[in-house]
Amino acid sequence: MNTKPARTRLAPSPTGRFHLANARNALYSYLIARKTGGQFILRIEDTDQKRFVPGAEEVIVRSLDWLGISPDESPFHGGQYGPYRQTERREIYQHYARQIVETGYAYPCFCTPERLDKMRKEQEAQKVDRVRYDGLCRRLDPDDVARRIAAGEKYTIRFKMPQEGSTVAHDHIRGDIVTENKYLDDYVIVRSDGLPTYHLAAIVDDHEMQITHVLRSAEWIPTFPLHVQIIRAFGWDEPVWVHPSILLKPSGKGKMSKRDTAAAMEDGYSIFIEELDGLGYIPEGVLNWIALMGWGVAEDDVMTLDQMVERFNVDNLTPSPAATNFQKLDHFNGTHIRLLTNEDLSARIKPYFTGAGLDVPNETLVKVTPLIRERLVTLDDCLAFARFFFQEKVEPNPEDLIAKGLDAKQSAGIARKAYEILSSLSDISHAVAEPPMREFVEASGFNAGQVFGILRVAVTGQKVSPPLFESMEIIGRTTVLERLQNAIGVLEKLG
RNA sequence: GCCCCCAUCGUCUAGUGGACUAGGACGCGGCCCUUUCAAGGCCACGACCGGGGUUCGAAUCCCCGUGGGGGCACCA
After folding, report:
1. How far apart are CA A285 and CA A376, in angstroms?
2. Closest CA to A296 of A315, A310, A309
3. Which of A8, A89, A145, A165 is least enclosed, having the fewest CB within 10 Å?
4. CA nearest neighbour of A484 among A438, A428, A415, A417
5. Alpha helix locations (H) across A151-294?
6. Which residue in A7, A276, A278, A372 sits closest to A288, CA to CA?
7. A338-375 pLDDT tens trace
8. Active site residue A118
């Protein structure tokens, strides 16, 4: 990989939501910049003002910040190459639009949308292979053009695509992409409202902002030759182009549809970065997950951002489409949760408890965290495993208090015995309480699963919980005995 | 319809003509550990899309199919 400082960019349009594919382009771009000591830039492509969605820019920045891959330059962070919003760069595009017309690589087109529409319909009726601009204004007399412009007639500017030969565009992971020019079109590069389309704006900006590596999704491949031709028309150097493939639905058959997105949501997943936080995912896990969709790492695939920077290489990006695998998200999330320090994890799960209306004393939290860390797939799982630590009372399902293979009466007997043993101890810490309970199990003839199962449900209110004795130690003698007493009452009523 | 991109276990991938009995990870199944659930350890199952070439030799190179995907706007 080129080691001179790279300048990369993420250029989303503020029209929709910030999803996986955006994040993945951002990550790879960020990685290239960090790896080479360069800069990662966020540029807002808002030239289509009809589609502008208020607040979309903020979501993008918030998502990037959450992931920990904030841009070095952006409309919000500033920078030497601003403005970073295309609608604020009008004059720059106008300058280059004039230049490209003057040098003969583009021309004004007076065709109205109505005429274009009619033209297309006619072409469709004739079943042409590819509907495209018929070149009417390309053949206009220069004096005529000047006259019509002077008369105030509205016009767009079209790029004068070579009509013969072919264009070779080089993608770093796909190699040369050769397109015969006869399949290309005279694309509109400046709208009649004076604002450029993506084709001109992006090329001009990438040049002006000195972007060295352009990562954009594969949807851009069809217009890739156009972009290369525009660059050549200006006589500029090309950046390194990389087109990572689109992301497929979990089955790998077809791309993510609205329906798939909704289905993911129902399963507790999301393709929108802003929603992942609320779903209990941590940036470290999400990042690791995203990184591996299209980046070939042979082994040791659990990585922190720093490790990714260390190991990343654009050469290892894959060109084939990747299925979105949420199970893998869970895996990476759980793995990275376990990599967190107890202090860090405690701070991250606390909001879930308080959010559920629980009072969470820190001294209790720090004791609880080590007990549940291995069990968490998502942060919000902490509630399922540990809410009983912070509740006044616990209400076990009566049925659950009856041990496997026993009836209510026998179970009540075990509970009473456990109460007897525990209440005889002044201290029920793990080390003190376990030996006598084990002795009881030995002597009683019941098995450990039965005895401890009853105790677990009585004390935690649930069948699945963190280790019993550690849990009881944290809950404290008084509360444990209260809960046991309550369970005995429930069992007696049952019996 | 036309153009373009892609093609290794169910999924993400390693593989750049001989080191391939095709490696790793997720998931799945089993075992161990264990008071539950996890975590961890071990084991198993599981793939080179098809057909032609090229070559002493092909997962790897070429061609043709097939399948999947993208695009054909004064959207990005």
Report:
1. 12
2. A315
3. A165
4. A415
5. 198-208, 224-234, 258-266, 273-276, 283-291
6. A276
7. 999 999 999 999 999 999 999 999 999 999 999 999 99
8. no
A325 touches strand B (CB under 7 A): yes
How many Å from the CA of A406 to C1' of B18? 66
Q: Give pLDDT, residue A405.
A: 86
Q: How far apart are CA A372 and CA A387, in angstroms?
A: 11
The integer distance in angstroms from the CA atom of A359 to the C1' atom of B41 is 38
Q: Per-residue pLDDT averaged across A449-472, rounded?
A: 96
Tokens of residue A2, six digits: 């080129």
CB of A215 closer than 8 Å to CB of A242: yes
**Beta bridge pairs of residue A267:** none
Residue A247 pLDDT: 92
Structure confidence at residue A1 as a pLDDT band (50, 70, 90):
very low
Where would I find the beta strands (DSSP E) of A70-208?
106-109, 156-159, 166-171, 175-180, 188-190
Mean pLDDT (whole number) for A137-145? 95
**A180 contacts A166 by C-beta, under 8 angstroms:** yes
Distance CA A38, CA A25 (A): 16
Other C-beta atoms closer than 10 Å to the C-beta of A125 total: 8
Q: Give me the mean pLDDT over the A4-24 stretch.
A: 94
Measured between alpha carbons, how far is A347 from A339 in angstroms, rounded to an integer?
Answer: 14
For position A300, what pLDDT does the model report? 67
Higher pLDDT, A1 or A137: A137
Contact, A367 CB vs strand B, < 7 Å: no
The pTM assigned to this predicted structure is 0.94
